[in-house]
């Protein structure tokens, strides 16, 4: 699951960078929307990573 999230994060990061260059403004609504989506994926990744680590330490 983490690999899939990492791929989604990289894809979204690329879209965000492209939008920033295209709009020449990192505060453009499209860039901010993509950034928020990326933030959500980062949180999801960290939660899953922590859960995985907790399973390993409890075994």
Automatic annotation (TrEMBL):
Alphabetically, which GO biological process terms does the record hold?
regulation of sporulation
Q: Which SUPFAM superfamilies match?
A: BAS1536-like
Entry's Gene Ontology molecular function annotations: protein dimerization activity
Q: Which Pfam families match?
A: SpoOE-like
Question: What is the name of the protein in this document?
Answer: Aspartyl-phosphate phosphatase Spo0E family protein
Species for this entry = Paenibacillus sambharensis
């Amino acid at each position: 699951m983490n690999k899939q999230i990492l791929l989604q994060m990289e894809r979204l990061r690329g879209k965000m960078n492209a939008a920033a260059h295209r709009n020449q403004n990192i505060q453009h609504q499209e860039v901010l929307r993509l950034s928020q989506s990326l933030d959500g994926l980062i949180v999801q990744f960290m939660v899953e990573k922590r859960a995985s680590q907790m399973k390993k330490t409890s075994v």
